[in-house]
Batch of 2 targets.
Target 1
Amino acid sequence: MKLSNVFCKRNRVLLRELVITDFKLRYQGSVLGYAWSLLKPLFLFAIMYVVFGLMIKIGSVEHYAVYLLLGIILWNFFAEATNQGMGSIVGRGDLLRKISFPKYIIVLSTTISALINLTLNLIIVGVLMLFNGVALHWSALMLPFYILEIYLLALGLAFYLSALNVKYRDTSHIWEIIMQAAFYATPIIYPLSIVVAKSGAVAKLLLMNPIAQAIQDARYVLITRESITVSGLLGSGFYILIPVSIVLIVFIGGTLYFKRHSKYFAELI
Amino acid sequence: MSKHQDQPAVIVSGLHKSFKLPHEQHSGIKQMLVNRLKGKKGFEIQHVLKNVSFEVKKGEFFGIVGKNGSGKSTLLKLLAGIYTPDKGKIRVNGSLTPFIELGVGFNHELTGRENVFMNGALLGFDHKEMEAMYDEIVEFAELGKFMDQKLKNYSSGMQVRLAFSIAIKANSDILIFDEVLAVGDAAFQQKCFDVFAELKKKGATIILVTHDMSSVLRFCDKAIIVDKGSVTGIGDPYTISDMYLELNYDNNTNDESSVVDSADGNRVAIESIEFIDANGKKTTSPNSGDVCRVGMKYINENEDYINFGFQIFNDAGVYCFGTNTKICGLDPINSSEGFVQIELALGLLPGNYYINVAIMNKNATSSLFYKTKAYSFRIKKDTQVEGISKLDYRWIR
């Protein structure tokens, strides 16, 4: 796999068709169709908001509703990209056994679908921001960087998990459990300030998780300065290099693992 | 392309491929741990290809033949780049498109039109290029009215037609076909043959993987036989098809003791069969057109009146010839044992054939004894005729 081949014509064409197909097939046969990918996170948000915002009143943050929605949407993006990516190679087994093409395109196409979904969902965030009177700041331009961070992490994991899933189908179950734990280990529902109040060390540790860091930073630049970020909690922006390095290590490691094993997918599936 | 004109299109050298066959169906972590603990490997190594080497020249129509399980499909997948060789090299000069199956990537939930674009993408055509040849594809497939319907509402014949119409647009230097010809009706097969002829004229390099000798004879310039993972023969199509028939020739059925008798007390059976050529010698490989005699030694302990039946099938299971003593107006026999003969001019084409024999009751309404593949013989090569039978013919000019 030469780097120049990564985006040669055939691969680009194929990637495009796979993304389009995925898009068309996702809500095949449902009445509301693509609206579901907007409605699902919206309903999840509504439930979370009623439970944690109104009943338990955990949300002591400014603009908690938007704050919560952005967290949920970014998390869902990560979850969707890794889950769909993980199953993509096995799911396209019929194709792999009959024609030769770079396998990474399959994983890439599912993560790009997730990225398209995220873009649509961010529109909802924008609308809610308008309703809540959240002022847009220049720093919001940093948002794509944090999304890229989550995307690279998800892509790296998707590469690794999809290759592993070819060998061991247990992977998807294990990942489901990990994701459940990770959801609560990431300050999505609860504001990080709650953890800081209990133990500053734990809060610092939680922020070394690239998704927690990216979500907190995204909230900071887009919604509220009350969002606790790495530079806010640890005193220096340099500490952000730790989660960013984790992202890069996972991405490179996942890509290499995938590359090494992709030769044998066709005969293993 | 012109620069490397004399270079072979494909060079395969010293190719090895083996597969790990897991003992258990389940691929899971539990199984892995159990196997580790027990010190078992949990799989067997199967060597599918052993030191395979050959060359395909530019513009050649190249056949790869072999029985089921010979490794020819694995070889095809290695050529197509789907599998990775353990050892050895495959060098391909030019672009290569494999057709292991028609309509790869077809999705039943998408419309015919959407599937055309998806399938085209797998062949390397972008949206614009597909748009340009879309009408032609639809016309060739004769599916104009159906293109906006979902593929799941297509008949299988329609799907194959659509897939084939896209496939022939593939603009590669080298094309590999698996036994795609096996599907579809006669008219469709003819279309395939026409396309082959067209491609051959254009000078494309074509590799055909098949066990149908008639298409090898008809199209190939050169062929190889793959048997038990090795190349056992390289040569012109006639030599190869002859070798292939010999390879497939099943000697066991000629073992006289294998003619079993019916299992009741009184035996009614054909005990042995012999095949005698025009010179009075026993043979299993007569020439096409030879006059031969097939003798059957029978036993009829019931001493009822009996008739004899005789059939010839080819190895594709096609019923080539059949007759019995009743329809030929011969009187039934009631002797307790004896010998009957049938004399035949073998107007058959090269290939492997089987003889089925039967003993029937007086009116030939039911069989008292029936043995399939009671004898097999092979007609040797004949380079003058094609088809399914050799009629008595001569040219008059």
Target 2
Amino acid sequence: MKLDNKTIGQRYAKAFFELSLERKTLDTDFEELSVLMQLVKENTELGDVLTDPRLRDSEKQKLLTTFSQSFSQNVQDFLNLIQDYKRFDKIEFIIDAFNDYYNAYYQKATGKVTSVVALDDNQKANLSKAYAKKFGLKSFEFENEIDSSLIGGVIVEAQGQVIDGSVQTKLKRVKQSLQK
Amino acid sequence: MSIKAEEISALIKKQLENYQDKLVVDEVGTVTYIGDGIARAHGLDNALSSELLEFSNGSYGIAQNLEANDVGIIILGKYADIREGDQVKRTGKIMEVPVGEELIGRVVNPLGQAVDGQGEIKTSKTRPIEGQAPGVMQRQSVSEPMQTGLKAIDSLVPIGRGQRELIIGDRQTGKTSVAIDTILNQKGKDVVCIYVAIGQKESTVRRQVESLKKYGAMDYTIVVEAGPSEPAPLLYIAPYAGSAMGEEFMYNGKHVLIVFDDLSKQAASYREISLLLRRPPGREAYPGDVFYLHSRLLERSAKLSDEMGGGSMTALPIIQTQAGDISAYIPTNVISITDGQIFLESDLFFAGTRPAINAGESVSRVGGSAQTKAMKKVSGTLRVDLASYRELESFAQFGSDLDSATQSKLNRGRRTVEILKQPLHKPIPMEKEALILYSLTKGYLDKVEVDQILDFEAQLFDYFDSNHASILEQIEKTGDLPENLDELNQAISDFVDGFTSK
């Protein structure tokens, strides 16, 4: 049976994560992969081009070298390996899985917080502290999204869970209980 | 009815006071595939098997396949407006349906929502649709009769309360009619009937409901309906939902009759779901667990022990065969699960023998012990009579010189076949069934012309109703023939003399 994207991502990411842990280059590798993720997201066709059977391997290799040069030897080797196995179209899943391993290692989580107005630094710090405490983590990082339809409160989405404290949802719940 | 405004505000105030402002942590996943009533979702790492999940458009689904990275979900309801990337939420519950007295007389879908246009059904209780069947110590053997009101069934393949008796046959052989007649005959017997229509044409279901209404059977019947236009998951859960509704009555000491019309279509919709969920196909492309699909359903019909209240649930599953092939996959499965089968044949049906029961291949494995003494006495020789008649019938077509013993066997056989015929929606009470079969086995009918037999039967019933009602009453009350048969014999022969001299 064909492997699904997530399984493939996990396999490559686990190998790279363990190696970089042994070589003690975890933090720099993580940062470089974050840069790469940015790059991949900006150039959505990159993965498809690098796995395009119509192009010659030497041409693809040339393209890969142009953007991988700036990375450390570790990451370069890793990218070359992915290219050898023709899995570059799965690079996003691989980096995602790597980030999961990285977060689990440092006991932290990343997620998304939706609010009506942008949170100030103090609020952000408090929120992340409270979240980390609730789930027994060391830290919690999040992006702040603005959505005025919430009316008030925040929605925290992370680790496959949603904590919905928005006024919109509360009103909806009051409405449901009155309709009964 | 006038509604006082302050009462309502008071109610709202009370509700608002009790309204708890709790932060709920929802576990969510993301839809990665959607189509054909099936969704796959990433995440939902803690989802349980057959847990109810909620999509962001308000539709519900059941987690069916729990795989390493995703969950296969069957969607109950609209799925056209679910998109890739939508959220799916865990509810922490497993699928439940409303149950209770309030459902009686209603037509509902497999989710327990009314589809008869008579307003919402307000029940106080619910039950999970999948439940553990009663165990060994919670049961007792079948002992009370479940009268179908059909002479052919009550005499040859008797059904007991708590039995599972399969009705099997080709299309257009009267399978549904047998089941509906059985429901009609439960009038006044304190039996709750549940008719589960799976993939039947809506017009057909409408017609059945109308005939149930016409004969006053809707007063004790629930109709669960999953039409062919519903998505396959609803057809798949329909019999389980019906069973859950029946179990509520059974565990409260009542008697229930449940008809699954039909399980072939349910198996087909389960096959559809399984193939879409990419489960490996087996024989006839059914998945590997298609036997368990039906065995766990039918095992829930039982006769409970007295400690459990002594309630029962009798199941009449229906299976449609293709050209009489009972060795196809689903028919053999269900035959082996049930406690016997009623085999209906299209040849007999078109020859005018209705109900078209094939007496040779129909059996009841446990019903015999539930048959009333009266019926047991009068139907003892019936099966043998019919068998020897069928055997001789083919010989008799060639030769003309038959000895008198053979002649009399042929005569008796012809009359037996005639007696077992019965018109649609005319169930007969047990004491009258016993009466006419007694007349047959004692030879009173041998003098009556074959084409006058049904006429004879009707007049005999009228005669007994007006002149010898006490005998019928006695049979009904004791469930046995009178100890002194003289009065009965005398009454019958008086009537026969009158009838034949006309």
